[in-house]
Design brief:
heterodimer; A: 328 residues; alpha/beta; eight-stranded mixed sheet; four-stranded antiparallel sheet; 12 helices; B: 328 residues; mainly alpha; MetI-like fold; two-stranded antiparallel sheet
Chain lengths: 328, 328
């Protein structure tokens, strides 16, 4: 395997509160190869967005990275000075947020927000930056970009605004784009277009993508590999096809069962009983044990580590024995 | 835009008419103006004749129309006390009040915004805590007490600054009497300006701080940070401008209050402005001055409000309707 672009090792993110310290992320490790699209799925509160925020160094205080390492290429970025980290943001890692309606500053034109970003990271005159900005808008599919660039965000529809957000995230040609639920706030009819634009441009430029979503359909169509998070821990990670067709963690299996398909027209969708535990009430052993249909004594006692079950495919479940065979 | 301005002007005229009605009612119900004008030895017949010749027996509507007609031409009658035209009296006193209000308003705005931004950005700093504590004093101490304390410290004990009056003034060609051009005029301005502006400054500071904290939590600020913009660009370029709409509203309204409430400060510092003129007129029920003052203050409020509403357009592009709504 080629050297990973992003490497996250045993990342622990904690939020100190009055009632004790909450672990929002507990020992998460994964790699993203250059040009790869890694999907990250899980329920709300599983730690997907926190992972993105931790990588880009924007965890809201009092939250902090308690331990672990984040490597971008040959640089360890979790301990950079604020100023050095600022130069990484936008330049090497771009980020797309969930809600395009609130991601753009309402008081400035698109032109100003784009040229400002370009000129922060690149050596360009105002004119050059503007030309680049128009080319970018054109590339993300804004019609009549040269004219629309001087409009304000409120002149654009939601889908168009998310295209502008993508243009902004890609303005300084980052190597990695973290897209945090980029389509959740959008109309279903434009979701696919936005994902296509994002994927195409990143493929063109060889940029890697970390796609955070809870939409398994988007993951199936877009991602090369998928990581499943549960209660701040990695439940399963592997190539999309393997994880979807042969999930090795009961939680992943439950997630797959909750996607409606036309081929298997079932009367009821499978749902996972119960809810994800709150961060201050994660059970001993496997965090999923209260909801698991195949729970064993061992699951209540010991926490399963992430272990390989097939090439490039790993699962944190006691049903998988040490040789990688599955008992379930 | 034009329709909006016209609508606002019509509203302003209605407000002014309502104020004129109150002001006119002063004449009718605060004592009998005939008593105020004539001596004790005037006979009842003479009084009746005078009442008739002054039009005081005309129907209410006719009298009110005459009052409004005169007021529009700046004609408010003769002061009972000083036997001079009211308009002349007010115009000769107005420069003193306007200069005082302008300086204290500007100081309140500049220091208020600066302190507000500082305390929002350094929320837990020692200086921020100190500023916030002192600001509590500014909000809770009554104006006259602040004035008296300042006089005691800076005029009586330290003898740095004069305790009363405007100092030497220079009359500009168009009849404006200014204290800005002389050393003693400027020195005399300092204490009253602080007294008058302190409350407004703390108000603006607390408002800017609260708005700034609010804006710093928004998505577009997070996105601006995620693009690697410098702290300076994020705080002063993106955040500060977004706090300005409510700040402009409050500052505008406060400028009106500063002019209106200059009464107290002018009394404490024997400042020869319209506030002092008003207070002296109230003492002797000089109704023409009181009613003219009322109309004048209302006019100032209405004009400032109008200007503030137009300023919104300059700050917030979403209000500029000339380009139409959302385009796709």
């Amino acid at each position: 395997m080629t050297k990973p672009l992003l490497s996250v090792r045993d990342l622990v993110v904690e939020f100190p509160t009055r009632r004790g310290t909450l672990r929002a992320l507990d020992g998460v490790s994964f790699d993203i190869a250059p040009g790869e699209v890694l999907g990250m799925v899980g329920e709300s509160g599983a730690g997907k967005s926190i992972t993105g925020a931790a990588i880009i160094g924007l965890i809201e205080p009092p939250g902090r990275i308690a331990s672990g390492e984040v490597w971008l290429g040959d640089t360890r970025i979790d301990q950079l000075s604020p100023e050095a980290m600022r130069r990484v943001r936008g330049r090497r890692i771009g980020m797309v947020f969930q809600d395009p309606l609130t991601s753009l500053n309402p008081l400035y034109t698109i032109a100003r927000q784009l040229t400002e970003t370009i000129r922060t990271h690149m050596d360009a005159s105002e004119g050059e930056a503007r030309a680049r900005a128009i080319a970018l808008l054109d590339r993300v599919g804004i019609p009549a970009a040269a004219r629309r660039i001087d409009d304000y965000p409120h002149h654009f529809s939601g889908g168009m605004r998310q295209r502008v957000v993508i243009a902004l995230a890609l303005a300084a040609e980052p190597e990695l784009v973290i897209a945090d639920e980029p389509t959740t706030a959008l109309d279903v009819s434009v979701q696919a277009q936005i994902i296509d634009v994002l994927k195409e441009i990143c493929a063109e430029r060889g940029a890697s993508v970390m796609l955070i979503t809870h939409d398994m359909g988007v993951i199936a169509e877009t991602a090369d590999r998928v990581a499943v998070l549960y209660a701040g821990r990695m439940a399963e990670i592997g190539p999309v096809r393997d994880v979807i067709l042969q999930p090795r963690h009961p939680y992943t299996a439950g997630l797959m069962g909750s996607i409606p398909t036309l081929e298997h027209a079932a009367d009821r969708l499978v749902q996972i009983p119960g809810a994800m535990p709150r961060l201050d009430a994660i059970p001993a052993g496997c965090a999923f044990n209260p909801r698991c249909t195949q729970v064993m004594d061992r699951c209540l006692r010991d926490r399963p580590a992430l272990r390989p079950v097939a090439p490039h495919h790993a699962s944190a479940c006691w049903l998988v024995d040490d040789k990688g065979a599955h008992h379930g | 835009m034009l329709a909006y301005i016209i609508r606002r002007i019509v509203q302003s005229v209605l407000v002014m008419l309502a104020v004129a009605l109150v002001s006119f009612a002063l004449f009718r119900y605060v004592g009998d103006p005939i008593y105020a004008m004539v001596g004790q030895e005037t006979s009842l017949e003479d009084r009746a004749a005078l009442r008739d010749s002054l039009g005081l027996n005309d129907p209410f509507v006719v009298q009110f129309a005459r009052f409004v007609g005169n007021a529009v031409q700046g004609e408010f009658g003769i002061s009972y006390r000083l036997q001079q035209p009211v308009m002349e009296l007010i115009l000769s006193r107005l420069p003193a009040t306007l200069e005082l209000a302008l300086i204290s308003g500007m100081a309140a705005f500049v220091f208020g915004v600066a302190a507000g931004v500082y305390t929002a950005l350094r929320r837990r700093g020692a200086l921020s805590t100190a500023i916030m504590t002192v600001s509590l004093i500014g909000v809770s101490l009554p104006t006259f007490l602040i004035g008296v304390l300042l006089i005691w410290v800076f005029a009586v004990e330290l003898q740095w600054l004069p305790s009363f009056g405007r100092g030497d003034t220079v009359t500009l060609p168009w009849g404006w009497e200014t204290g800005f051009l002389t050393q003693s005029g400027r020195a005399s301005l300092i204490l009253p300006a602080i007294t008058l502006g302190l409350y407004q400054m703390t108000l603006i500071m607390r408002l800017v701080r609260a708005e700034m904290l609010e804006v710093l939590r928004t998505d577009y600020i997070k996105f601006a940070r995620a693009r690697g913009l410098s702290n300076r660009a994020v705080h002063f370029g993106h955040a500060l401008k977004n706090t300005m709409v409510p700040v402009i509203t409050i500052t505008g309204l406060q400028l009106g209050s500063i002019i209106a409430f200059a009464i107290i400060t002018e009394t404490v510092f024997q400042w020869p402005g319209v506030g002092a003129l008003f207070i002296n007129s109230v003492r002797v029920v000089d109704v023409p001055v009181m009613s003219a003052y009322l109309v004048l203050i209302a006019l100032i409020f209405v004009v400032i409000n109008l200007i503030v509403d137009l300023l919104y357009y300059a700050v917030d592009p979403r209000l500029r309707v000339e380009r139409g709504g959302v385009r796709h």
